[in-house]
């Protein structure tokens, strides 16, 4: 029976080797091509590629191993890989060579032993290969990295030839059955038993002696070839070329069991032996292996694989001794089979022989036997990685994966919504575990779920990316399904993964370095080594016979056989309990420790004990009846109850038996305590040596550490469950109170500490490293301490990958001992026992440090490890590590003693704070970031408050970010805290985390007074060489900055008020105003919430300084802010001054070329002028003026001198001083109003697309009114007139305006008359819009507004009527002006009725005739006469003469008074003369004659009436 003594250790990274692709060129040779075609038709190679093939060779010193593989899926491609302990690993580069034709399962690599140094240096290696078409290749290989830029092998480095063409025989060649090679020689065996070798690499193929056929005899056989060939032998089954004792020997195994050995140097046969095997019927001789021959020994081991083709196929390996006698003639002899090894289960894959051992690789394990040992039961078995992967993915048992769901439901029955994420986290963690994770396997599995990537895309995925992809696959299977369904998806996924893992990573061959004893397993897509079991693994897995020699394992037990028996019973109970709970229990416990737990890990053990007591929760079956089926759920529940009853009874009986055997529980506990000491990581004192690099030994060390740590962690957990179970049923097993107290107070804390230590070791060896943050990339590179061979880019590529764990980073600091014989040589791969020794040293270094002293606390050691990880940006790992250590310290209730222990507690919290702070900066956002910041703040405060913090943190390496404070340890606690808080403030500020920086700035302020008040006891001088004001000023300035960054404006202003340093205060105030301005929050200064407390003048100065130096169109505008600020303070005149200054700068500084921008700027000017006017109206009239040259702040002008000339104006003036000062230079309300009017006009003109610029003079330009009228801006035109003109000037301008308005009512006649507002109609036409609407306007479209520039018709008449009615009160002659303009423009125009009424309505009361105001009926009559409107003139005269004659009786007396009536007799005379003249000229004689008669009659009657009235008046006067 074979005993398990070791396990496979995968070399991490060999699944992701980067291959350089290169192809073999076709030789363009006519002879070769002809031969190749002939060969393809005639030759047959029976050794075609039916399975994946691999082999290896070892060359050089130090040993360099070559591994080559040919996959059956790619028969033309050969993969070549170098394996060396001195090479950096992972990251090894391989060579992938593509041949023109498919290869047979053969290749060989050796050193180039050419006598020409140039070839041996440039091409140090030779590669032999053979295609199935019979073409052999010899390739002179360079170093693999030299092919990075070569797509095709150079032709002069490739030799190829056809084996069939070069054969010396002329008969048809037999099929090739076996091939072997060595340096300078290629041997082939054929199906007819013949063997030929070619001196390929030594001679040219045309040289005699290049091809040699090995015959049975050297003399007669050459003459009698036929007779020589008559002695038939079996087909060549296998060929092996071996060099021993200076001889190059070719071993040939024939199918009939004949073994022949040929001396290739002399081409002579030196051995022909028939292998005698009992019961050889149906036996097939398959393979031959030749072992190593020691220089001082004459025995060489041979091994032959035989397959028995009986009813049951069985394989057996027969081992022989080959004796070699050297002398004048070399004599070989073979002893009969000395050792027969039956392979009962599993198929033999490969065999390797050393001088004393035989290694047999089967598809289910690796066997090791001592050579020539009579007892074949001493086989040592090494398990393969398939067993580990199956266990991790719950594929080893049908119930193990289901138990995970059952146990999870039972533990978290009250939090069922968290079960699915928890179970998913377990599966993802195990899938990506080093040794389980495999790139090709995961990609193949995801391909089944239709996830496709390119090679580059998949290689670029980090751990987080892989987790995201796997989660998405599971989630896409069912979004809202039950936990059972999700679990089934995980189960199916893992089953697929395990299937591909076994398929894509199957074992292919062995590689044994005899000099070092290393055993290497070559898989299809990876490489592994084997290690021995650790002692604890052998104890747990061993039998009762092996427990007898417990002392050899280092277990401290007395020689009393009873203690060994007690330990045996205890282990049986522990194993029974572990088997009952199953592997999922440890998986759940581990996940609760390693990730954010659903419940505390301390609660997991009691819940597991409850499962041992009552079984799984009954709700599991009831909740999943629909998923499982009613029958299955019921059967499962019954089976669980049955198993629980059986376990409870057996456990109780076993414990009673144990109690009786030990006679007391105290003795049992003593044995358990001795066993616990065996679980504690060993202390090993290590010697310093060169720093380790990332070589294969490091990869093996990390993976082996994870395996051993996992096993001991689970073993310690089993012990914890066992002693907790004893405590729970102590009453049933009659345990004394002292024993229960001992378990509770000593054992459980001890076991928990052991569990935590191995948990940390396993965590470090399995947790992938974090990718460097983009922002922190440069600092990460600068902090690395890597030897010159490691490329920094390669380092960055490794971080964040599944196969690069935290332990690789720690290995940079881990040193090995070169003087210890148990340690491996740095030039060789480690043997199985050396791997265990390496793990012991590494775990000792992690837990105990370099010296391994017991005085070193793990608290300090964890801080040292955390510091290493922190330097390399592994923030998540540091947080977890320190959190676990802190939790253990709290659980042990020794926090107070820890604080007294040289400041280790302070260092821990300081490093934890640094880690959390870095995470907040790089890894989190939102609520999680705020949480990290709060935790970091708490850690830094706790670090500063511990005893011994000053000395401990001062001694801490600067890699932690702590500066040298520059004072001795005798500094006071307050001074220490002051400096520490300032450092914390700076580090938070560096990371742009203002909240934390503000808290530490305030904390530092609390320490200032106390720190400055204390003296240094040794020197009597101040510890801090700065004044109180300087320190507080600087700190308050920082508080201001941080609160301002946090947008806490009120707190920031309070920090300004609290600052005792005046210079700092004003600098902060200026910054405060600038920030408020930039954020648009200046209303804070104006809403009355901030107490100015003497800072009002300074605030005004800063605002004014900001206004003068800001762009005038900046938003928000500083002048507006100043206006609001002064208005809030009731400083009306300053407010008016600032806002007027704003308007003035807009007028002088802004370029108004853009029409749209011009309108906006003018509107701003209007708003500013309006605000200034409103402010001045709040002041008494004698003080309602401003100085336009500055804003009214003389202090501001002194503090901030300007290049502009200024005149000081005193505000507090009275009486005549006020008037005198105002005479110098001022702007009062009236001037502001005039400017407002002109600016309004300019604004309206800009809207009408008419350009006019205000020049700043107090008088309006003469052409402004003209432009306003032309733009139909009549209201604005009249406003300007009324503001700037009066008296006759106003009348004159009114006449001009109304004359222009009248002209617009006669557009058809405009060109015939001169225009006062322009030279001609051309000017007005030039102001009209040129859009397509112009034609519509000309034709009188009613859709246009009444104020349109081109509008003609009723709208113009209505406008004229409106404004004439409004403004004729200012000038009564306006109707006459309008009528005269109209008649002058168009003498035939029909005056509007409303205009005629204005003339008629102007007559004064109690007057008769045509008298009145300026625009009276007489004026109208005169206009009619002047412009030839004789008919209208006659009718108007007749109207008023009749009105005069038909007065009412009541008014008759008044009419007769003197001067009561008046008529324009001169004009009437002119009318008569004009009618007379026209009649004489013959124009309209009848019409004018009629008018004359009417006029004559009217005048006669009127004169008669006047005569009568005159007489009556005279009579009345005489009376």
* Largest beta sheet: strand ordering: 24-25-26-27-1-30-29-28
Largest sheet: 8 strands, mixed
| Strand coverage percent | 5-15%
The first-to-last residue Cα distance is: 176 Å
Summarize the structure in words.
- The chain has about 1500 residues and is of the alpha+beta class.
- The protein contains 58 helices and 34 strands.
- Helix 37 packs across helix 39, helix 40 packs antiparallel against helix 41 and helix 41 packs antiparallel against helix 42.
Which key features would you list for this structure?
about 1500 residues, eight-stranded mixed beta sheet, alpha+beta, about 15% strand, single chain, five-stranded mixed beta sheet
Quick synopsis:
The chain is of the alpha+beta class and 1519 residues long. The chain has an eight-stranded mixed β-sheet with strand order 24-25-26-27-1-30-29-28. Strands 2-6-5-4-3 form a five-stranded mixed β-sheet, with no helix packed on it. Strands 19, 20, 21, 22 and 23 form a five-stranded antiparallel β-sheet that branches. 50% of the residues lie in helices and 14% in strands.
Question: Could you give the topology of this structure?
Answer:
Elements: E1 3-10, E2 18-23, H1 30-42, E3 53-59, E4 64-70, E5 77-83, E6 93-98, E7 103-111, H2 117-122, E8 125-131, E9 135-141, E10 158-162, H3 163-166, E11 176-182, E12 185-190, E13 195-198, E14 211-214, H4 220-223, H5 225-230, E15 236-244, E16 247-254, E17 258-263, E18 268-274, E19 283-290, E20 299-309, E21 313-325, E22 331-334, E23 339-343, E24 348-353, E25 357-362, E26 365-370, E27 380-383, H6 385-392, H7 398-411, H8 419-431, H9 439-448, H10 455-459, H11 463-477, H12 483-504, E28 507-513, E29 518-523, E30 527-532, H13 535-541, H14 561-581, H15 583-594, H16 601-614, H17 619-623, H18 625-628, H19 630-662, H20 665-679, H21 696-728, H22 737-766, H23 777-783, H24 792-798, H25 806-811, H26 832-848, H27 858-871, H28 875-891, H29 895-899, H30 904-922, H31 927-945, H32 949-955, H33 973-990, H34 994-1013, H35 1028-1045, H36 1049-1058, H37 1062-1079, H38 1083-1086, H39 1096-1108, H40 1118-1128, H41 1132-1149, H42 1155-1176, E31 1185-1186, H43 1194-1199, H44 1216-1224, E32 1227-1228, H45 1229-1247, H46 1262-1270, H47 1274-1284, H48 1287-1303, ...
Parallel strand pairs: 1-27, 2-6, 33-34
Antiparallel strand pairs: 1-30, 3-4, 4-5, 5-6, 7-8, 8-9, 9-10, 11-12, 12-13, 13-14, 15-16, 16-17, 17-18, 19-20, 20-21, 21-22, 21-23, 24-25, 25-26, 26-27, 28-29, 29-30, 31-32
Helix pairs in contact: 7-15, 8-12, 9-12, 14-19, 14-20, 14-21, 15-16, 16-21, 20-22, 21-22, 21-26, 22-28, 27-28, 27-30, 28-30, 30-31, 31-33, 31-34, 33-34, 34-35, 35-36, 35-37, 36-37, 37-39, 39-40, 40-41, 41-42, 42-45, 45-47, 46-47, 47-48, 48-51, 48-52, 52-54, 54-55, 55-57, 55-58, 57-58
């Amino acid at each position: 029976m074979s005993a398990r003594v070791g396990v496979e250790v995968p070399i991490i990274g060999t699944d992701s080797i980067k291959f350089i692709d290169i192809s073999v060129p076709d030789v363009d040779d006519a002879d070769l091509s002809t031969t190749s075609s002939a060969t393809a038709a005639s030759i047959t190679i029976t050794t075609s590629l039916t399975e994946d093939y691999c082999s290896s060779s070892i060359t050089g010193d130090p040993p360099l191993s070559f591994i080559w593989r040919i996959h059956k899926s790619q028969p033309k491609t050969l993969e070549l890989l170098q394996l060396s302990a001195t090479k950096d690993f992972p990251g090894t580069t391989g060579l992938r060579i593509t041949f023109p034709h498919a290869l047979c399962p053969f290749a060989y690599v050796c050193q180039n032993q050419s006598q020409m140094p140039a070839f041996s240096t440039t091409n140090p290696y030779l590669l032999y290969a053979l295609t199935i078409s019979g073409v052999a290749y010899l390739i002179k290989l360079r170093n693999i990295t030299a092919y990075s830029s070569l797509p095709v092998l150079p032709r002069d480095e490739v030799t190829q030839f056809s084996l069939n063409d070069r054969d010396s025989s002329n008969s048809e060649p037999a099929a090739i059955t076996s091939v072997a090679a060595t340096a300078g020689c290629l041997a082939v065996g054929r199906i007819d038993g013949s063997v030929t070798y070619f001196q390929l690499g030594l001679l040219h193929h045309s040289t005699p002696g290049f091809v040699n056929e090995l015959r049975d005899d050297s003399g007669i056989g050459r003459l009698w070839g036929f007779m020589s060939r008559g002695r038939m032998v079996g087909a060549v089954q296998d060929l092996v070329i071996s060099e021993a004792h200076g001889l190059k020997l070719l071993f040939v195994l024939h199918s009939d069991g004949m073994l022949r050995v040929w001396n290739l140097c002399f081409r002579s046969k030196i051995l022909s032996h028939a292998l005698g095997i009992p019961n050889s019927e149906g036996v097939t001789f398959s393979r031959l292996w030749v072992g190593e021959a020691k220089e001082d020994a004459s025995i060489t081991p041979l091994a032959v694989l035989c397959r028995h083709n009986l009813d049951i196929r069985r394989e057996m390996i027969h081992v022989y001794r080959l004796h070699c006698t050297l002398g004048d003639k070399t004599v070989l002899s073979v002893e009969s089979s000395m050792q027969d090894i039956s392979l009962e289960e599993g198929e033999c894959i490969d065999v390797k022989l050393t001088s004393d051992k035989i290694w047999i690789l089967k598809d289910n394990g690796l066997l090791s036997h001592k050579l020539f040992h009579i007892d074949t039961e001493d086989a040592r078995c090494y398990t393969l990685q398939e067993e580990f992967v199956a266990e991790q993915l719950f594929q080893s048992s049908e119930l193990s994966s289901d138990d995970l769901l059952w146990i999870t439901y039972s533990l978290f029955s009250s939090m069922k919504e968290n079960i699915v994420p928890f179970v998913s986290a377990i599966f993802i963690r195990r899938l990506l575990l080093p040794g389980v994770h495999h790139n090709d396997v995961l990609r193949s599995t995801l391909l089944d779920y239709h996830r496709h990537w390119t090679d580059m895309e998949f290689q670029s995925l980090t751990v987080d990316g892989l987790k995201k992809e796997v989660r998405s696959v599971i989630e896409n299977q069912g979004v809202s399904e039950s936990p059972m369904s999700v679990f089934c998806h995980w189960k199916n996924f893992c089953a697929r993964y395990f299937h591909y893992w076994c398929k894509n990573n199957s074992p292919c061959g062995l590689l044994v370095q005899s000099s070092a004893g290393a055993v290497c397993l070559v898989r299809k897509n990876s490489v592994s080594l084997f290690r021995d079991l650790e002692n604890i693994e052998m104890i747990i897995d061993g039998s009762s016979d092996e427990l007898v020699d417990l002392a050899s394992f280092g277990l401290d037990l007395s020689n009393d056989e009873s203690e060994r028996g007690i330990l045996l019973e205890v282990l049986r109970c522990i194993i029974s309990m572990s088997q009952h709970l199953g592997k999922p229990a440890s998986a759940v416990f581990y996940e609760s420790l390693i990730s954010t737990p659903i419940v505390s890990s301390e609660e997991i053990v009691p819940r597991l004990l409850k499962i041992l007591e009552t079984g799984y929760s009954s709700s599991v079956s009831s909740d999943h009846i629909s998923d499982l089926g009613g029958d299955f759920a019921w059967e499962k529940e019954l089976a669980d109850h049955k198993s629980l009853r059986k376990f409870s009874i057996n456990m109780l009986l076993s414990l009673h038996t144990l109690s009786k055997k030990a006679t007391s529980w105290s003795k049992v506990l003593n044995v358990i305590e001795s066993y616990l000491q065996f679980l504690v990581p060993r202390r090993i004192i290590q010697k310093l040596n060169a720093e380790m690099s990332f070589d294969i030994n490091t990869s093996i060390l990390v993976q082996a550490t994870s395996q051993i740590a996992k096993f001991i962690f689970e073993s310690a957990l089993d012990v914890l469950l066992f002693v907790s179970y004893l405590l729970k049923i102590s009453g049933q097993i009659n345990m004394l109170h002292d024993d229960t107290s001992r378990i509770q107070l000593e054992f459980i804390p001890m076991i928990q500490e052991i569990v935590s230590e191995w948990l940390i070791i396993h965590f470090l060896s399995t947790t992938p490293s974090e990718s460097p943050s983009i922002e922190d990339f440069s600092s990460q590179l600068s902090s690395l301490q890597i030897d010159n061979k490691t490329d920094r880019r390669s380092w960055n590529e490794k971080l964040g990958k599944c196969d690069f764990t935290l332990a690789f980073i720690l290995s940079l600091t881990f040193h090995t001992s070169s003087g210890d014989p148990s340690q491996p040589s740095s030039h060789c791969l480690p043997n199985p026992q050396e791997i265990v020794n390496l793990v012991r040293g590494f775990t000792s270094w992690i837990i105990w440090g370099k010296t391994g002293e017991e005085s070193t606390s793990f608290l300090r050691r964890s801080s040292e490890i955390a510091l290493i990880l922190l330097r390399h940006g592994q923030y998540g790992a540091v947080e977890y590590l320190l959190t676990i250590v802190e939790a253990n310290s709290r659980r042990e209730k020794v926090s107070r003693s820890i604080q007294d222990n040289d400041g280790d507690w302070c260092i821990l919290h300081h490093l934890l704070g640094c880690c959390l702070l870095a995470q907040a900066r790089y890894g989190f956002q939102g609520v999680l970031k705020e949480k990290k910041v709060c935790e970091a703040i708490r850690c830094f405060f706790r670090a500063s408050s511990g005893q011994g913090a000053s000395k401990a943190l001062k001694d801490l390496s600067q890699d932690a970010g702590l500066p040298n404070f520059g004072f001795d340890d005798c500094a006071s606690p307050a001074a220490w805290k002051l400096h520490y808080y300032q450092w914390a403030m700076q580090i938070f500020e560096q990371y742009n985390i203002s909240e934390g920086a503000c808290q530490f700035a305030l904390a530092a302020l609390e320490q200032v007074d106390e720190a400055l008040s204390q003296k240094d006891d040794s020197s009597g001088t101040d510890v801090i060489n700065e004044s109180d004001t300087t320190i507080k000023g600087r700190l308050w300035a920082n508080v201001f900055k941080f609160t301002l960054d946090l947008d806490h404006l009120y707190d920031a202003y309070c920090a300004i008020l609290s600052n005792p340093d005046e210079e700092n205060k004003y600098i902060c105030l200026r910054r405060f105003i600038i920030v408020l301005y930039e954020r648009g929050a200046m209303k804070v200064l104006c809403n009355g919430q901030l107490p100015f407390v003497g800072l009002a003048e300074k605030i005004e100065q800063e605002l004014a300084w900001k206004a003068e130096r800001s762009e005038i169109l900046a938003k928000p505008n500083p002048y507006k802010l100043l206006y609001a600020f002064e208005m809030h303070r009731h400083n009306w005149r300053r407010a008016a001054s600032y806002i007027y200054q704003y308007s003035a700068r807009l007028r002088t500084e802004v370029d108004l070329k853009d029409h749209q921008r011009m309108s906006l700027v003018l509107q701003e000017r209007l708003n500013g002028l309006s605000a200034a006017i409103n402010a001045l109206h709040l002041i008494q009239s004698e003080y309602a003026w401003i100085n336009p040259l500055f804003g009214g702040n003389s202090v501001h002008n002194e503090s901030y001198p300007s290049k502009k000339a200024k005149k000081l104006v005193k505000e507090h003036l009275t009486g005549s001083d006020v008037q005198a000062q105002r005479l110098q230079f001022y702007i009062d309300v009236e001037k502001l109003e005039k400017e407002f009017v002109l600016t309004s006009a300019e604004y309206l003109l800009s809207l009408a697309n008419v350009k006019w610029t205000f020049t700043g003079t107090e008088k309006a330009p003469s052409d402004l009114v003209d432009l306003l009228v032309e733009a139909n801006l009549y209201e604005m035109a009249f406003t300007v007139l009324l503001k700037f003109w009066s008296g006759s000037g106003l009348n004159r301008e009114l006449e001009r305006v109304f004359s222009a308005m009248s002209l617009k009512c006669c557009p058809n006649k405009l060109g015939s008359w001169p225009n006062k507002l322009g030279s001609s109609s051309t000017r007005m036409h030039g102001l009209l819009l040129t859009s397509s609407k112009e034609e519509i306007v000309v034709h009188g479209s009613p859709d246009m507004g009444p104020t349109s520039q081109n509008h003609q018709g009723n709208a113009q008449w209505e406008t004229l009527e409106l404004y004439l009615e409004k403004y004729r009160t200012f000038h009564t002659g306006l109707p006459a002006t309008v009528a005269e303009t109209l008649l002058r423009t168009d003498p035939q125009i029909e005056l509007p009725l409303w205009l005629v009424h204005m003339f008629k309505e102007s007559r004064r009361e109690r007057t008769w005739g045509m008298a009145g105001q300026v625009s009276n009926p007489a004026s109208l009559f005169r206009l009619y006469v002047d412009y030839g409107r004789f008919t209208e003139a006659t009718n108007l005269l007749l109207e008023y003469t009749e009105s005069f004659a038909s007065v009412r009786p009541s008014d008759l007396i008044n009419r007769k008074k003197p001067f009561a009536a008046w008529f324009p007799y001169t004009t009437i005379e002119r009318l008569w003369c004009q009618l007379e003249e026209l009649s004489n000229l013959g124009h309209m004689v009848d019409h004018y004659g009629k008018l004359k008669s009417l006029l004559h009659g009217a005048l006669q009657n009127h004169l008669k009436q006047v005569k009568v009235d005159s007489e009556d008046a005279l009579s009345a006067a005489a009376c």
